[in-house]
RNA sequence: GGCGCCAUAGUCUAUCGGUUAGGACGCCGCCCUUUCAAGGCGGAGAGACGGGUUCGACUCCCGUUGGCGCUACCA
């Protein structure tokens, strides 16, 4: 079914992250395969920003993703920052294109306007769920006459555009690594293509862009296999040849659940701040993509490119094993000359601006020059060692203390910009929410963030440390108290925005 | 619940019907060494379960179990 012919056309792949949070290692992983595959075949690799979700997408996130991806050492031939002949590469700038294609589907009867309210849809799904039947739009608005549909739309009634899906028959998705996967159309939903805000959903934008950008191979996360039938159907409706599809297994936490921020560091920037070298991180991710010949586990992206064979990628979801990453990173570090090591260390955390800021914070607090480095050591460390005993003297009950840590961590995650002002606002807000004086909570935060009840000023320290390191230190501190139970998490996060669904790129 | 994907040591993996099931991380021991690392050498440790197919299954088929994903006007 998906039978693009790589021999006949130039291979083009893409990575298409959604700028709705921190740059995710899953994005680097997907980018790496796509990059290597394109390079291997002398083709092009592009970067596209999938920011059709107006509510969750932010420019800060987009900037961070671009920067993080550049940090990995990967480069792309076309993208929002480098341009290219198939632009724009930001979906929010392509709305008119999607609308045109949605209209085309509407005109050919392959899509229809749906005026159903969210309430009605919810009710419908509840009934289906109770009955154990597939949850799927029941087609009510599909039966509307073109006449009525047009009239209601013209009258300003809000609607979405849904795709038509056959009610019988099967769709065979040919996955490059998994072989044919069969779906009954009866289980495929009449997916929304255009939202009531006029912007497309992933499904429409993705298919239209991959076609217009001449993508030949779509290599993406496993979370997309169940929407592949919809995508294939869209290609068919438009009369386009679909690209080759390949779904990668999802990276896992040590407990084998999908890698998630609340259980594990998932940010590319976290690894950067912890002092991992990009070549080590990519080497590690590469090890999950292509088995290494015996004794050759350290290799460059170029070497990986030569060896990569999509059909041989192992399909079990690999655990992100930090111990292995540590070993690899050590190998890279040891291979550096002393001069190189000094340079990279300096570039990593000892740039002049940062040193000046630290000196300013420390100057009034030292009595000997020999005090300075020890007083700032925690700003150059990854995790700090804390135990339950470290928090003795905070005169807070365990539960309040854990809640203070957890709320701060979660609320800080929800901040768009992580700077001194945001930290101060959030931490003081938590104190207020807990009905405590910030002064009484300060010690808790000092211990968790710096490893000691006394240190350089907290808010500045946290800004210097950055969001990822702070989140990890909060986690470590919480773990010292046995972590947060699922029940507590539910109760304590009621007023918080939900965790980002995933970071793995499309 | 429905649909789909996956299944070799704690972890990442090799094996494409016949092997003492190989390697790497981690772990343990030894060597080297002023300590600790690094490095070298060695060790323990695996085919989820049950049926088939076959002269012969880790490998092919079916079932069970387990894990994961999707089930949104998010991607």
Quick structural overview:
The protein is mainly alpha-helical. The chain has 20 helices and nine strands. The protein is globular.
Question: What does it look like?
Answer:
- The protein is mostly helical.
- It has 3 domains: 6-89 and 250-334, Rossmann fold (3-Layer(aba) Sandwich); 94-242, Glutamyl-tRNA Synthetase, domain 3 (Alpha-Beta Complex); 368-492, Arc Repressor Mutant, subunit A (Orthogonal Bundle).
- It is built from 20 helices and 9 strands.
- The protein has helices at 25-40, 59-71, 95-107, 118-131, 146-154, 202-212, 228-238, 268-274, 278-287, 301-307, 322-335, 338-349, 352-362, 369-376, 398-414, 420-433, 438-450, 458-465, 467-480, 486-492; strands spanning 12-15, 44-47, 111-114, 160-163, 170-175, 179-184, 192-194, 217-221, 244-248.
- The protein has a 3-stranded antiparallel beta sheet.
- The longest helix has 17 residues, at 398-414.
- Mean pLDDT is 92; it is low at 1-6 and 498-506.
């Amino acid at each position: 079914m998906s039978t693009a012919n790589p021999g006949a056309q130039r291979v083009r792949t893409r990575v298409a992250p959604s700028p709705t949070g921190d740059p995710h290692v899953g994005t680097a992983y997907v980018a790496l395969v796509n990059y290597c595959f394109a390079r291997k075949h002398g083709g092009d690799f592009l970067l596209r920003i999938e920011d059709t979700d107006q509510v969750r997408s932010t420019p800060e996130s987009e900037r961070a993703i671009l920067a993080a991806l550049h940090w990995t050492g990967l480069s792309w031939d076309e993208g929002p920052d480098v341009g290219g002949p198939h632009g724009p590469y930001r979906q929010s700038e392509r709305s008119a294109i999607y609308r045109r294609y949605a209209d085309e589907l509407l005109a050919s009867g392959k899509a229809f306007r749906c005026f159903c309210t969210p309430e009605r849809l919810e009710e419908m799904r509840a009934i289906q769920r109770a009955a154990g039947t597939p949850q799927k739009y029941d087609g009510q608005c599909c039966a509307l006459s073109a006449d009525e549909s047009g009239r209601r739309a013209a009258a300003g009634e809000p609607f979405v555009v849904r795709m038509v899906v056959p009610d019988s028959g099967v769709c065979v998705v040919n996955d490059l690594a998994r072989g044919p996967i069969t779906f009954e159309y009866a289980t495929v939903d009449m997916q929304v293509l255009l939202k009531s805000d006029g912007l497309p959903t992933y499904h429409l934008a993705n298919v239209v862009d991959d076609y217009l950008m001449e993508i030949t191979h779509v290599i993406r996360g496993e979370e997309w296999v169940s929407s592949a039938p919809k995508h294939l159907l869209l290609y068919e409706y438009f009369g386009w040849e679909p690209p080759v599809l390949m779904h990668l297994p999802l990276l896992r936490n040590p407990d084998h659940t999908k890698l998630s921020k609340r259980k594990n560091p998932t940010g590319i920037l976290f690894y950067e701040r912890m002092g991992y070298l990009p070549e080590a991180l990519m080497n590690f991710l590469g090890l999950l993509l292509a088995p290494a010949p015996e004794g050759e586990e350290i290799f460059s992206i170029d070497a990986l490119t030569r060896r990569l064979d999509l059909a041989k990628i192992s399909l079990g979801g690999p655990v992100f094993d930090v111990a292995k990453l540590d070993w690899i990173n050590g190998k890279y570090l040891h291979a550096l000359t002393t001069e190189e090591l000094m340079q990279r260390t300096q570039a990593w955390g000892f740039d002049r601006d940062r040193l000046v800021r630290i000196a300013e914070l420390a100057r009034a607090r030292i009595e000997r020059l020999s005090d300075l480095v020890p007083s700032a050591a925690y700003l150059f460390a990854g995790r700090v060692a804390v135990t339950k005993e470290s928090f003795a003297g905070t005169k807070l009950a365990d539960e309040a203390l854990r809640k203070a840590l957890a709320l701060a961590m979660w609320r800080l995650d929800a901040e768009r910009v992580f700077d001194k002002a945001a930290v101060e606002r959030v931490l003081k807000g938590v104190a207020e929410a807990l009905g405590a004086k910030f002064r009484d909570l300060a010690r808790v935060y000092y211990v968790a963030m710096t490893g000691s009840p006394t240190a350089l000023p907290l808010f500045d320290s946290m800004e210097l440390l950055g969001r990822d390191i702070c989140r990890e230190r909060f986690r470590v501190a919480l773990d010292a108290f046995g972590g947060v139970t699922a029940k507590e998490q539910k109760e304590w996060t009621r007023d918080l925005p939900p965790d980002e669904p995933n970071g793995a790129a499309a």
